[in-house]
Specification:
heterodimer; A: alpha+beta; 20-stranded antiparallel β-sheet; two-stranded antiparallel ribbon; 32% helix; B: 787 residues; alpha+beta; 9-stranded mixed β-sheet; 8-stranded mixed β-sheet; 17 helices; 26% strand; elongated
Chain lengths: 533, 787
């Protein structure tokens, strides 16, 4: 048997379907012509009536207190709705319904929605307190405009003459809308809509401003600009805040940029004067970690924070209290602490390692690594430890092991409650636990640089943190001293928190300052796979 | 030094038992230096810094063919449940878990770090699971080796007397256990396998400079000396006795470690001397154990509700294993009972299998000592132990629980209840506790637990000053308060003490709870946190002689009390002494208002100007309770009342007949000193308006009472009732004789041995009088009058 190869060539008439020549067909054109004309007229009308005659920016008031930009919402809503971040929203909260709402069609068929929500969507308003006047503006497709023209088929859309502005009202939804060219404007506030339709050019957003706003989105799903008034609680220190949100399946990213008001620049001046975004060392691993470099020594930061807090809280009172506690019967630690703290910084890393559940009382284990002149501190420690010469090893006097460069004060409860310092390179390690300090002292204290630049970096492992806190609380509950809780009721109370925290792998944030501008970004990573039972 | 071998027993196995097998071993279990030590609270969990001498686990395996046991002694401060559980998991399977007797020598220089429970970590240091595991492994290894070393054996036991090795650490020349008990186990060749010594004294002799060093204390020196004296391979074992209030003496007048060494050495020499006089033979073993429910405790959040008791009988020797530190009095009493049951010797072994802290005998319960304060299961714990052990002994009759007592006879009276409390004082207490258990528990929760939980009574010093609001202090503060109030028990007579125990048992409450409830007034005032619970303001009037008309003597009193109470007439019929009637509340074992069968009336009041109650001064209401049962005449009452040191501001009205049979009444006021006031013109007021104790309100009340009684030459019960029910308008409540705070009104006719009690109605108005006679043995006379 042999294969037969057949060739088809659509260009060859001989291989195409034979066309039948119609004879005497003139009668058909008589019917076709009016229809064609009709279609032509309708087409011209459709093109005419759906032409893009209005600038979107021209219908948006300039100087709105907040603006939200969302581009190509229908394209984005899929991954936004699929984000596991929504699992973190409590069922009781309205936001819990967000994925469903995002994927919902507001009672409209897909093809209608595709033509109405077309391209850039812009929401703005002037009421930051109750959000009573949001104005939603978008550009419809031609089909969208035509669909709107068929509104007379929809019984619940009413005409609202509005002095000739020809608004439409949807009373059941409490909404008003208007169409100008291909621009659709929707608002629950009739006055907001009227104002937008009657804007003087000078009062409207410029095309360039709108374009800038849209471009500022970058890869974010949503960008929001907020311009609070001076004295307003929301974002009080800032003249303007730009917030961008990007939702992914396994997490979310929030980025903020804020321009400080002059008054706040002054108030935060001592704290931020030397703060510029720069590389930060990775913090020591723990449940909650901080890495910071404000360009200041620790006492300067203390002073800066104290000034920033204003008159209500005086940190110096706390400092005095802490120093007072450090004045024990055996030894006055206050001068030593003051001298040590004076040398700490500007690079500093803090870590909450966890809770030593087996200590005399469950105690948090804290570690800090500070840039510091180690030779100066070594001299300081050696000098302080002279007080313990001849004293029994359990007496709470300063001890210094020059070989290991370890400084500690014997304390009740054993090593996990024993304040310890270790020196290495140009760094000072401080820990509430001697065990941890000794363990870390053997390692390099120079942390690798983080990929992000900034002044403060914070990373939290929520699940491990909640577990540690719960375990400590459970011990108190077992003893019957946790006010209001038995072990059972504590577990019941903690269960939703635990479930919540179990879904999150970690949260990391970095903040930076440069010339009065604050940047902040938060990354939330969701745990892969299903939470453990 | 003299010693006497009390008995050396050669006993053959009873039918059914096979040849005795025994093996012994010792394994060092010292934890790494740095591990916290257990024993002294002042160490506060600091780590050890050195090892002076090793800590051991010493195990003896014994089997008579039908019963196999392990006796293990460890150089630890105590055996905690976690350690025991792990050791039992690791034990040789040939011996059932319940046949393992795990004891600690109670050295205060052994490793801690093995107790996960939070309150104990302050003393035993942070919990280190690896230390618990290594220690359990070491103990188990000693058991496995002892089991592998088992061979045909013979056993003998004996006792000797010692007078110089131990002393009572609380009372100079106080009781000590003079017995040194010895068990010698030999193999078929007469070589000693083990020598076990039982001796009672705290191993707390490590000198201060080695406060943080591991040491077995004097048992360590005892081991070394005994093993030096004995044949090679003999394992020296040490079982501490009822050492709660026992410590070592200083027989050779030495200091520091030399003292420790001398006691250990001399103990070993003494034990060897006893062993030298023993002839060993076969032995029958009988091991018995039970897990028993403990008496209720305020420390239930950190102490167990059940205890594991064990006894081991080796022929005629009885060993009783206490799960804690029994005071010597308990050990001696246990021995007396054992010998009475036919055992030839008895060893009390403390710190066995668990640690329920201290056990003190009833007489020591009110003492303000460390042992007493750490006794958490009430004053009856010794009886509980005796009963528990008696149930495990093969000889004698097990002691039964306090028998089925008569159910309380309770009946309704107008606006209140009437209860008859019969039998001995304990039985009376049980009846009260049973009848009003629910109310007692509710009052305890309201008056004691409530203020403690709210933090209102939290001290502002010590650890409490650091206590954050999110922590509830109740679980720790209640036991501490229970301890603090025990010294007040010292002023009570046996009858009242016993009745309080009965109330606690009847109501299912810890004894300390009942006692705290009785003292809720003090509690509140000590906390200085406002009028949570104020003591009574009262109006009391007596008319005497002609002024009392035909009755010859009448007393009227209102008891004012700001809290709603369950009104009760308690008719007490004690086994000895005077029957009496008390008008009061469900919970109060003391007496504010009462009369006995001899017609002695006693009523207590407290001035609004009284000093705040502290921990000093006898509780007057309990003195009245005792007097009603013991005294027949006002002379006896006067003598006793004048002699007591009551808190300033109390006053007591007493009325009745004197020795000559004459009607008398007087008031004792407790100011800077006790003063006695007699009637003036036949009228006696509870407080004289001239008294420094009399405040403005009391002056108005008493002036009104005097005014109301002034017109008549003689006043009968009716006139007195008018006085008691007088609510003069326009006066503040505290100035009214009858007020919303009046909880009962009583008119006494002492010569007729009759009293009329009125409780307020639900609307707050005075109820009808109910007549009660303390002399009546049957039902109360229930007559109502319209007064």
């Amino acid at each position: 048997m042999s294969d037969v190869q057949r060739s088809f060539n659509r260009t060859r008439k001989s291989s195409g379907p034979r066309r039948r020549v119609r004879r005497g067909g003139g009668c058909g054109l008589w019917f076709a012509f009016p229809v064609l004309v009709l279609f032509l007229v309708m087409g011209v009308w459709a093109v005419w009536t759906t032409r893009d005659t209005h600038s979107m920016a021209r219908l948006i008031p300039a100087g709105q207190r907040y603006e939200v930009y969302v581009d190509d919402f229908l394209e984005r809503r899929g991954h936004m709705a699929e984000s596991r971040v929504w699992e973190l929203v409590d069922e009781q909260w309205p936001l819990h319904e967000a994925p469903e709402l995002l994927m919902g069609n507001f009672g409209l068929p897909d093809w209608v929605l595709n033509n109405v929500l077309f391209g850039l969507c812009h929401v703005s308003g002037s009421d930051l307190a109750s959000f009573s006047d949001p104005l939603f503006v978008t550009r419809m497709s031609r089909v969208g405009v035509l669909i709107e023209r068929l509104r007379f088929l929809v019984p619940y859309i009413a005409e609202d003459y509005a002095g000739g502005l020809r608004l439409r009202a949807i009373p059941e939804a409490g909404l008003f809308y208007a169409v100008r060219g291909r621009i659709l404007m929707v608002s629950p506030a009739r006055t907001a809509l009227i104002r937008a339709l009657t804007l003087a050019e000078s009062d409207a957003l410029s095309d360039a401003a709108l374009e800038r706003g849209a471009k500022s989105m970058g890869t974010e799903d949503l960008t929001c600009h907020v311009r609070p008034r001076d004295g307003e609680t929301l974002a009080a220190p800032f003249e303007e805040v730009r917030v961008g949100i990007r939702l992914g399946t396994d997490g979310a990213r929030l980025s903020c940029h804020g321009d400080l008001r002059p008054a706040w620049r002054d108030r935060l001046g001592p704290l931020l004067a030397h703060a510029h975004p720069g590389p930060l060392p990775a913090p020591i691993d723990g449940l909650c970690m901080v890495s910071a470099n404000m360009g200041l020594l620790l006492p300067e930061i203390w002073g800066g924070v104290n000034q920033a807090l204003g008159d209500e809280i005086d940190l110096n009172v706390w400092r005095e209290r802490a120093l007072a506690v450090s004045r024990t019967e055996q030894y006055d630690f206050a001068p030593l602490l003051s001298a040590m703290v004076a040398e700490m910084g500007p690079e500093m890393r803090l870590s909450w390692h966890g809770i030593d559940q087996y200590a005399m009382l469950p105690v948090p284990e804290l570690v800090g690594i500070f840039e510091a002149p180690d030779e100066t501190l070594a001299t300081l420690f050696a000098s302080a430890a002279e007080a313990s010469e001849g004293a029994p090893p359990w007496v709470s006097l300063p001890r210094y092991d020059a070989e290991k460069r370890l400084f500690w004060v014997p304390a009740v409860g054993g090593p996990s409650i024993e304040a310890t310092a270790a020196l290495a390179g140009n760094a000072l390690l401080l820990s509430t636990s001697r065990t941890i300090a000794e363990e870390l002292a053997g390692q390099s204290m120079a942390g690798e640089a983080l990929p992000q630049q900034g002044n403060v970096y914070v990373r939290v492992k929520p699940h491990a943190s909640v577990l540690a806190l719960l375990e400590a609380a459970r011990q108190f509950a077992e003893l019957g001293v946790l006010r209001g809780y038995t072990v059972e009721s504590l577990d019941a109370m903690a269960a939703p928190w635990l479930a919540w925290a179990e879904r999150v792998e970690e949260a990391a944030a970095v903040a930076g300052h440069d010339e009065g501008k604050i940047t902040f970004s938060l990354r939330l990573s969701m745990r892969q796979g299903e939470p453990e039972a | 030094m003299r010693f006497v071998v009390l008995c050396a027993v050669l006993s053959l196995a009873a039918g059914g038992a096979g040849a005795l097998e025994a093996g012994a071993s010792k394994v060092e279990i010292t934890a790494p230096v740095g591990t916290p030590l257990n024993g002294y609270g002042d160490r506060l969990g600091r780590g050890s810094v050195s090892k002076h001498d090793p800590l051991w686990s010493r195990a003896l395996y014994l089997s008579d063919g039908s019963t196999a046991v392990f006796i293990v002694n460890t150089d630890l401060c105590l055996i905690n449940p976690g350690l025991r559980a792990r050791v039992l998991e690791l034990r040789p399977e040939a011996v059932p878990a319940e046949h393992v007797i795990l004891t600690a020598t109670h050295t205060h220089s052994g490793q801690g770090a093995m107790i996960p429970h939070l309150p104990f970590r302050v003393v035993s240091g942070r919990f280190m699971p690896e230390v618990l595991e290594a220690t359990a492994q070491g103990i188990a290894r000693s058991m496995h080796e002892a089991y592998r070393n088992r061979r045909r054996a013979a056993l003998g036991f004996g006792t000797a007397k010692q007078l110089v090795l131990s002393r009572n650490r609380r009372v100079k020349d106080g009781p000590i256990d003079t017995q040194v008990g010895v068990i010698l186990v030999e193999d078929a060749d007469g070589e000693a396998i083990a020598l076990v010594t039982n001796f009672a004294a705290h191993p707390t002799s490590v000198p201060e400079e080695d406060h943080y060093a591991f040491s077995a204390d004097y048992p360590g020196f005892y081991y070394n000396e005994l093993e030096r004296l004995a044949t090679p391979g003999c394992v020296a074992m040490f079982l501490n006795g009822a050492q709660g209030n026992q410590t070592i003496a200083n027989p050779e007048d030495k200091g520091g470690w030399e003292r420790t060494e001398s006691v250990g050495r001399l103990l070993a020499i003494r034990a060897k001397e006893v062993a030298n006089g023993l002839t060993c033979g076969d032995a029958v073993l009988r091991l018995a154990q039970a897990t028993l429910e403990l008496p209720p405790t305020l420390a239930e959040s950190f102490l167990p509700r059940e205890a594991f008791l064990q006894t081991l009988e080796i022929n005629d020797l009885l060993l009783t294993f206490f799960p804690g530190e029994a005071c010597v009095e308990i050990g001696l009493e246990m021995r007396r009972r054992a010998l009475e049951h036919g055992y030839t010797a008895q060893f009390s072994v403390g710190l066995a299998n668990d640690y329920l802290i201290y056990f003190v005998p009833r007489p020591l319960y009110p003492a303000f000592t460390y042992e007493s304060s750490q006794n958490y299961y009430g004053p009856g714990i010794a009886d509980w132990l005796y009963r528990g052990f008696s149930g495990l002994m093969s000889r004698g009759t097990p002691e039964a629980d306090p028998g089925p007592l008569e159910p309380p006879d309770v009946r309704d009276v107008e606006n209140g209840l009437h209860i008859v409390l019969a039998g001995n004082s304990y039985a009376q207490g049980v009846q009260r506790g049973r009848a009003f258990g629910e109310d007692l528990r509710a009052r305890f929760r309201e008056r004691v637990v409530g203020p403690v939980r709210s933090g209102a009574l939290k001290p502002s010093t010590g650890m409490w000053s650091f206590w954050p609001d999110w922590l509830d202090p109740t679980a720790l503060a209640l036991p501490a308060m229970g301890m603090a109030f025990r010294p007040l028990l010292a002023s009570l007579g046996d009858e009242v003490f016993s009745e309080l125990e009965g109330i606690a048992d009847g109501a299912g409450l810890p004894f300390d709870a009942v006692w705290l409830l009785q003292n809720a007034g003090r509690l509140t005032e000590m906390g200085d946190t406002g009028p949570l619970f104020t003591t009574p303001l009262c109006t009391m009037v007596a008319v005497v002689g002609e002024r009392a008309g035909a009755e010859g003597l009448l007393v009227a009193r209102n008891l004012d009390w700001p809290h709603a109470e369950y009104p009760v007439i308690a008719e007490v019929r004690p086994e000895s002494g005077q029957p009496f009637v008390q008008a009061g509340f469900s919970w109060n074992a003391g007496v504010f208002t009462g009369m006995n069968a001899a017609g002695l009336v006693l009523c207590a009041g407290r001035s609004a100007k009284a000093d705040a109650l502290g921990m000093e001064g006898i509780a007057v209401e309990f003195v009245l309770r005792e007097l009603l049962q013991e005294a027949a005449t006002v002379d006896e009452a006067k003598a006793r009342l004048r002699g007591i040191e009551a808190p300033r501001g109390y006053y007591v009205m007493a009325a009745g007949v004197d020795k000559a049979g004459e009607a008398q009444a007087f008031v004792v006021e407790y100011g800077p000193e006790a003063s006695v006031r007699a009637p003036e013109e036949g009228l006696l007021l509870g407080l004289s308006p001239a008294s420094p104790l009399c405040d403005d309100s009391a002056s108005l009340r008493y002036a009104r009472a005097a005014e109301m009684l002034a017109g008549a030459e003689a006043s009968g019960s009716g006139e007195l009732a008018d006085v008691l029910f007088d609510a003069e308008r326009g006066q503040a409540e505290a100035a009214q004789i009858w007020s919303g705070s009046t909880r009962h009104s009583v008119i006494f006719e002492p010569l007729a041995r009759r009293m009329y009690v009125s409780f307020p109605k639900a609307d707050g108005s005075p109820g009808d009088f109910v007549a009660v006679s303390p002399a009546a043995v049957a039902a109360p006379v229930e007559e109502s009058s319209d007064e």
